[in-house]
Design brief:
Oligomer: single chain
Strand order of the largest sheet: 3-2-1-4-5-6
CATH topology: Rossmann fold
Distance between the termini: 39 Å
Number of strands: 6
Strand content: 5-15%
Helix content: 40-55%
Number of helices: 9
CATH class: Alpha Beta
Order of helices and strands: EHEHEHHEHHEHEHH
CATH superfamily: HUPs
Largest sheet: 6 strands, parallel
Radius of gyration: 17 Å
């Protein structure tokens, strides 16, 4: 079976994430897509929402997506979420599966500097999509370098909305409109739990 891995902070999960997940699933002809919210990313601090809130929002956002599972594997493990450890655990859970790891374009351009990259390269095909400032040509050039390091790669052609979680957090904090950037159930969850307000910091 072909299993895709789409991780991130998802703080909060938005329509761009959903579009990307569908695109990854279809472009790679996956049998299963795992959405994996990080407990704590090694590269950036988690924003205002707790791990449990982010997990809950992902479950709402992806509940209707075919063969897509929101996994708490990194949240349960606590600590910094290193990709090589997650991949090792996934290979134990899904022995024999082909694993396709999705990363953003920025991460793809630096993945050889991650912790234990040789383990990542041995366990998964690393996939990405172009974004503003990093086009497909730049990604394919870096893919050639990664291939020399033993990494299998895929540069996908997927069009997604240019939405950012940090912009959504700012909009909420500044009491600006943001409903159109989220699936309705996630918007309702944020409003109900008063997440990303300066006075609450999503710690309920």
């Amino acid at each position: 079976m072909k299993t895709g891995v789409f991780g991130g902070s998802f703080d909060p999960v938005h329509i761009g994430h959903c579009q990307l997940a569908r695109g990854i699933y279809e472009s790679l002809s996956l049998d299963r897509l795992l959405i994996i919210p990080a407990f704590v990313s090694p590269f950036k601090s988690i924003g205002a929402a707790t791990a449990q809130h982010r997990l809950n929002m992902c479950r709402l956002a992806f509940c209707d997506m075919e063969n897509t599972v929101v996994s708490d594997i990194e949240i349960k493990n606590k600590g910094k979420s290193y990709t090589f450890r997650t991949l090792q655990e996934l290979h134990t859970l899904y022995p024999g599966d082909e694993i396709y790891l999705f990363t953003g374009a920025d991460s793809f351009m630096t993945i050889e500097n991650w912790k234990n990259p040789e383990i990542i390269f041995s366990l998964a095909t690393v996939c990405t999509v172009p974004r503003e400032g990093i086009d497909a040509a730049a990604l394919r050039e870096h893919a050639r370098l990664l291939m020399k390091l033993g990494c299998k790669t895929e540069v996908l052609d997927i069009q997604v909305s240019t939405v950012s979680s940090s912009d959504i957090r700012r909009r909420i904090s500044d009491t600006k409109e943001y409903r159109h950037l989220l699936v309705p159930s996630v918007y309702e969850y944020i409003e109900k739990n008063k997440l990303y307000r300066e006075d609450t910091h999503g710690k309920h």
